[in-house]
Amino acid sequence: MTQGVVSVSRRQVRRSVVVTVLGLMQILSWGSTFYLLPVLAKSIVQDTGWPYDWVMGGVALGLLVAGTVSPRVGLEISRYGGRVVLACGSATIAVGLAIIGVAAYFPVYLIGWAIVGAGMGAALYDAAFSTLGAIYGKSARSAITSVTLLGGFASTVCWPLSAFLVNQMGWRGACLTYAALHIAIGVTLALLAIPAGRLKSSVSTAVQDAPLPRLKPEERATFLLLAMVLTLSAAILSLVGTQLITLLLASGLSLSQAVVLGIIIGPSAVGARLVEMLAGSRYHPFWTQAASATLVVFGALLFLAGPAAFIFAIAVYAAGNGIGSIAKGTLPLALFGPVRYPVLMGKIGLPVLVAMSLAPYVGALSFTYGGATATFSLLLGIATVNTILVAVLFVLTKERRAHEAA
């Protein structure tokens, strides 16, 4: 067989189409799940009387479920490709959002979020990256970068859309509208535009269909360390994403000032991803991860300098986090190759999504008992540990390469 040929229901889909579709699906999937409650939570509390922390616990439950299903999702994409998996992910999110939208009792609300979580595990970045790796193999790096570039607009697009929907038809109508969009856009685009297979190489079908090779003993420490780095990066993203406005307000800023500063995150992240997209092919993805960790730790340090430095802190942090999402997809591909990539991304997704679900509560506890300064210090501590782990990962991978070359 010819390297890089993919079966797509008797026709080829242009790479640009696949990337655009996956990018649009990421905007919808992130915007209607992870970024949903910051806009809807207040209306849900007012309408139902459920406590605010209970309502916010819905997305935490969803992330836990997403982490649980993530390894299985990676295995299915490795075997069959991502088209059906991504379509099922959007359909499952739609079902969960519909249940949330009609929930009259809190347990039903939680059931809806659990179902949404199952869909998140099959629809967010991990599944999209695995799909691209299964289709394009080692050449997937630029596609992964482009998808994250588009996905970075999720909050920019969906926060105003969610606010509009809540104002026009209430929070229940907003959930039902997003459910309909997942069916009309997510499922439809996945089935029509995502290739229906996986990368085919010159090896025989029998070899391709054989059980995927496991990590070698010398690879396990590298994989464990990489998983730790990506997990801490995800915890930082979740902590800042859920606590930033509260921390800015506690530091003396007005609500309008805090919101304006928060807007910096999107352009800074997308700008950094654009630089990576233009220059990333010139260096190993490890350096993207190293730059990400370094920028995040400097951003955290600037937060402790006080309100006068907040604009720079947010811009630097957001740039680091922006390219970190690219490294999450490209570094495992570079270190372990395309054959095992979907399965390994699924395994990494478990601790990453669990960390994202727990980090907001850890941040809230830190803020409750120590205030903004303690929480910024916690952020700096996590970022510093992560930077040290990245340095250790560099040494470990350098030694493994030298051993393999010998």
Structural features, described:
By secondary structure, the protein is an all-alpha fold. Helices cover 81% and strands 0% of the residues. It has helices spanning 15-31, 37-48, 52-80, 83-102, 106-121, 125-136, 141-151, 154-193, 205-208, 217-250, 255-263, 265-279, 285-303, 310-336, 341-405. Helix 3 (52-80) runs parallel beside helix 5. The protein is globular and about 55 Å long.
For this entry, give a set of tags.
disordered N terminus; 2 domains; Growth Hormone, Chain: A; 406 residues
Helix and strand succession?
Answer: HHHHHHHHHHHHHHH
CATH superfamily caption of the largest domain: MFS general substrate transporter like domains
Can you tell me the overall shape?
A: globular
- Helix/strand-derived category reads mainly alpha
Helix content: over 70%
CATH architecture field of the largest domain: Up-down Bundle
Beta strand count = 0
What proportion strand?
under 5%
Quick overview of this protein structure:
The chain has 406 residues and is an all-alpha fold. The protein contains 15 helices and no strands.
Q: Mind sketching the topology for me?
A:
Layout: H1 15-31, H2 37-48, H3 52-80, H4 83-102, H5 106-121, H6 125-136, H7 141-151, H8 154-193, H9 205-208, H10 217-250, H11 255-263, H12 265-279, H13 285-303, H14 310-336, H15 341-405
Helix pairs in contact: 1-7, 1-8, 2-3, 2-8, 3-5, 3-6, 3-15, 4-5, 4-8, 6-7, 6-15, 7-12, 7-14, 10-11, 10-14, 10-15, 12-14, 13-14, 13-15, 14-15
